Amino acid sequence: MFRHTPLRYAALVLLIGAALTQTFTAGYFGLEILIEILILGMLVLALDLVAGFGGMVSLCHGALMGVGAYAFVTLNVLVGLDPWLSTLAAVAVTAGIAWVIGAICARSHGIYFIMATLAFGQMGYSYIFESPLFGGDDGMGGIDRFDLTSIGLDLNDSKTFALFCLAVLIAVYLFAAAILKSGLGRSLIGVMHNEKRMKALGQNTWRVKADVFGLSGIIAGIAGVLAAQHILFISPGMLAWTVSGEALVVVILGGLGTLVGPLIGAAFFVVLKHQVSEVTSHWHLVVGVVLIAVVMSRANGIFGWIEARYGAWIDRRLTDSTRTETPEEILTDA
Amino acid sequence: MTTDLGFWTLQTLNALQLSMLLFLLSIGLTVIFGLMHFVNLAHGALYALGAYIAASVASVAGFWAAIIIAPLGVALTGVLLYGGLIQRMRKSGPMAQVLVTFGLIFALLDLTRILWGDLALAMDTPALLSGQVNLLGVTYPTYRLFIILLGGVIFTALALTLARTQIGAMIRAGVDNDSMAACLGINVERLFFVVFCVGCALAGLAGAVAAPLLSVTPGMGLQILIPTLIVIVIGGLGSLKGAIAGSLIYGFVQTFGAVLAPQLASVLIYALLAAVLVIKPVGLFPAKG
Q1: Neighbours of B156 (CB within 10 A)
Q2: Which of A120, A282, A292 faces B104 most closely, judged by CB atoms?
Q3: Measured between CB atoms, does B37 come within 8 Å of chain A?
Q4: Do A252 and B99 lie within an 8 Å CB cutoff?
Q5: B274 touches chain A (CB under 8 A)
Q6: Which one of A312, B98, B125, B283 has the lowest number of neighbouring Cβ atoms within 10 Å?
Q7: Which residues, in sequence order, are CB contacts of A20 under 8 Å at separation 6+?
Q8: CA nearest A103 in B: which residue?
Q9: Does the beta-carbon distance from B88 to A249 stay under 8 Å?
Q10: Measured in whole angstroms, how far is the alpha carbon of residue A200 from the centre of its chain?
């Protein structure tokens, strides 16, 4: 099951510290990169929740984020609803759609699950792309950020918006961790390890999968609303399968099923992308090679590798009988 | 419009042409999956590579040289990929394979951009095939008929090879139960290698014949990947029957959807895929029951 090891706490504290330092020292461009990382962080948390702890490798999470963004903009800009109410409704719509997708795909496994979620994601992409109602391939603009001037915050300022996104990301992280520690989260991990056994124990396994997929949709929806408010413009490209593919790449780079790792992966990925883009226009080549190297190294991403090293180090330090858990157990538990 | 017989003939030919192009791509992918349980997402990138090689060769040595050299060049790339990456990934789970080949897509995409630039290349149809023919009351480009014919020939050749020859029997045995086939003295690993190379060559051939129809761009591999995956999932992984059935279903739904219900066309095929996965999660004609 999911557990916060001291190493994970340390990584979280470091990440938050780095984000805060960046917020107060970086210029406009640095803040934009930070916000991009924070929003991507929410998306990859949503994906890690289903892929890392439920074995449901989804290629529709980018599309779910896009649904959140489009639902928010439609309600807020086209219908003229209150922004907070629009957010609530957009997140609810995304979660509902995610639950249905999860319920339909719950019977599929492995490559079929990937393909089924891909199909749903592309369905959403094609629909939005062709639909005149949602602006088609022109996208939609005219978006405003939340108005928090009543409590003295101006979100149109990049620094304030970055802090706001950081706060939301922390809340989302706590939400994801709470799900994993709940009975539902434990059932999910059980289903991932042995679905037949969980069925024999009387678990309604498709329901567990669908529920967590729906909860993951809540997070993707929140990420979508913030992504819309960040760029102040939405286009069908947000729903394209390559967005989901990149999110998956980030989760793998960071460490599947560690919850902390994907956040590190998000920071690493976005910074790498911008750094490489400055030197050469061929950043895809670099990302491709890095991805192949990480997967071939058989380490569970950056954070998985650190955890394995740390586990081995602890193991050497404490070889006495007080230890009850081997590092392998820590890893498989995670 | 819809009562005119010529309209139906024309659209049927269009649908067949799209189906055959997809068939050339999906057959390689599906047999590689069926035999090796290997998910090669980079198949689309190999198709793009085939188109680029063909366009380059055609500008020097003409069309016919291009459609012979392109499959060979792509097969050679396949050999390198097999030796460098795929052999090592054989025992990994599907997740790792998806990711490695996903990384390959990124790398190959940029490699083609470095080698050939960002601009779209064009390739001319050969003089022999550049005209139009009258067929059942409609005039139709000869080149598109050639693609339909080529697809038909390849399908027949593969069907005969799989059903009637010894190597076909070995492949079928390998798909059905690879460890049992290995026990019977079949060198399954070498069989994998041959099938992988043939699959790559067919992807290269698809790219080469598609090049005169579409403009050759770095993104063409990504564009074709999703239709190809849809084809093999609808058809069922690992079988020739599934690949041809899936290709025909995709080609006809896409073509007729676009003219009869343009609003729904793009969503239709994904809805169909979702329906197939819900009703028959392993596709219509999977290699294994």
Answers
A1: 10
A2: A292
A3: no
A4: yes
A5: yes
A6: A312
A7: A166
A8: B278
A9: no
A10: 32
Distance between CA B163 and CA B169 in Å, rounded?
Answer: 7
Query: Who among A123, A248, A296 is closest to B88 (CB)?
Result: A296
Query: What are the extents of the domains in chain A?
Result: 6-240
Place of tokens 């601009």: B119
**Among A38, A6, A3, A2, residue whose Cα is nearest residue A314:** A6
The total of other beta-carbon atoms located within 10 Å of residue A291's CB is 24
Instruction: Tokens for B71, please give them.
Output: 């499959």
pLDDT, tens digit only, all 334 positions of chain A: 688 888 899 999 999 999 999 889 888 889 999 999 999 999 999 999 999 999 899 999 999 999 999 999 999 988 988 999 999 999 999 999 999 999 988 888 877 888 888 888 988 888 888 888 888 888 888 888 888 888 888 888 889 999 999 999 999 999 999 999 999 999 999 999 999 999 999 989 999 999 999 999 999 999 999 999 999 999 998 998 889 988 998 998 899 999 999 999 999 999 988 888 888 778 888 888 888 888 888 778 889 889 888 888 888 888 765 555 555 555 555 4
| Other C-beta atoms lying within 10 Å of the C-beta of residue B202 | 27
Q: What is the DSSP string of B63-79?
A: HHHHHHHHHHHHHHHHH
Question: By C-alpha distance, which of B275, A222, A5, A164 is closest to B267?
Answer: B275
Element holding A182 (H helix, E strand): none
- Secondary structure tally for chain B: helices H, strands E: 12, 2
Q: Which domains does chain B have, with CATH numbers?
A: 5-279 (1.10.3470)
Angle B166-176/B142-164 helices, nearest 10 degrees? 80
Residue in chain B closest to A250 (alpha carbons) equals B99
